[in-house]
Design brief:
The chain has 123 residues and is of the alpha+beta class. It has a single domain, classed as 2-Layer Sandwich (Dna Ligase, domain 1), CATH 3.30.1490. 43% of the residues lie in helices and 12% in strands. The protein has a four-stranded antiparallel sheet. The chain is elongated. The protein starts with a helix and ends with a helix.
Length: 123
Amino acid sequence: MAVDLLTVAHETSERTAIPLQSNLIAATAFMEPSKEWMYIDKDGTQVGPLEKDAIRRLWSKKSIDWTTKCWASGMSDWKRLRDIRELRWALSVRVPVLTPTQVLNLQLVVGHMLAPVLLFSPF
């Protein structure tokens, strides 16, 4: 549920808001999932519209990947899946946020930042 709430919070920065659209989260809980996503498959065929759950199923079957071009109403142009924040959040449950190399690099950066503090600490 937290991922869904974060997705809703980030949707406004990805797509243009529709005038007079209600943003009540409570109202959307009783609505059918909207079939708004399109994608271009490996053969170059446009597929959709689909709801986000269908995108999740395609992802788990490895039918789509980070380079798959996707589009939804309100977007100015087709984008790679990895460049669409809303879909990244929707798929983040099954996808590691950082690779092992990125974790190691982050540890080094934090270590370098903390080294001067530890040198001058009283303990």
